[in-house]
Write a structure and sequence with these properties.
By secondary structure, the chain is mostly beta strands. It has strands spanning 4-9, 18-23, 26-33, 36-41, 56-57, 60-62, 69-71, 76-77, 80-84, 87-93, 96-100. The strands form three sheets. Strands 1-11-10-4-3-2 form a six-stranded antiparallel sheet, with no helix packed on it. This is Nitrite reductase [NAD(P)H] small subunit.
Length: 105
């Protein structure tokens, strides 16, 4: 298990919405969908758009610029799973939302 860091509090992320947090100088989008938290890199690997600004449907966020779709569960591009954005395990401890970071972020 990598380093675990607190990034927000329960209640900071609206249900069905997202927030952006900075972790080690990188923007990470934290989503709350049907009571489950997910976290992926906020920048689309295609053109750099903020994924937190995209709509979420069926566990997939759609990039607001060019409509690339990424699965919240693993960060994979829905049309070609070999292309991925960073994805983080989310833990809730008390009222803290924590991200498990890989060895390199």
């Amino acid at each position: 298990m990598g380093q675990v860091v607190a990034v927000a509090r329960v209640g900071d992320v609206p249900d069905g919405g997202s927030i952006v947090v900075e972790v080690n100088q990188k923007d990470v989008a934290v989503f709350l969908v049907d009571g489950q938290y997910y976290a992926i890199d906020d920048r689309c690997p295609h053109a750099g758009a903020s994924l937190s600004g995209g709509g979420v449907e069926d566990g997939v966020v759609t990039c607001p610029w060019h409509y690339w779709r990424f699965r919240l569960t693993d960060g994979a591009w829905a049309d070609n799973p070999r292309i991925k954005t960073g994805c983080y395990r989310v833990h809730v401890a008390g009222d803290e939302i924590r991200l498990e970071l890989p060895d390199r972020v």
